[in-house]
Amino acid sequence: MRTNSHIWVVTGDLGYGGFDLIQKDFPHRYINVGASEQSMMGIGIGLALEGKIPFVYSISTFLLYRPYETIRNYINHEKIPVKLIGSGRGRDYAHDGISHWVDDDRNVVKQFTNITSLWPEQKNEIPMILEEIITTKKPFYLNLQRS
């Protein structure tokens, strides 16, 4: 974010310390919408339409399922370059119950034919992927394993 003033972060009341530095250093480019996933997507879409690079971050189930229609109709169909970052695979958040299980996100994302998607297996892959996400003018879904 230091080298690219177009990058924004939009989250749904998540991060648990992971965004502390961003909040501190870039408070005007960090938006926490709370538990409002539809609004989170709408803000990301609006930012992208204004030429910004929005990274919309949430637990994968909340990122994909609750705002599904918005993703399908706008980000996918209209090819709006929102960068979706999903946290968690399978039962990474099993302790929080079924609402947090993400066993079928690959099948859900396959339906979005205009959204490039990646599930990196190694942490060392992520910097290169992020560089690609920042430079592409297309929508993107990146799934991160919870560590």
TrEMBL record:
InterPro entries: PDH/Transketolase, THDP-binding, Transketolase-like_Pyr-bd
Membrane-crossing residue ranges in chain numbering: none
Residue ranges annotated for the Transketolase-like pyrimidine-binding domain, each copy included: 1-146
Full protein name: Transketolase-like pyrimidine-binding domain-containing protein
Species name: Candidatus Roizmanbacteria bacterium GW2011_GWA2_37_7
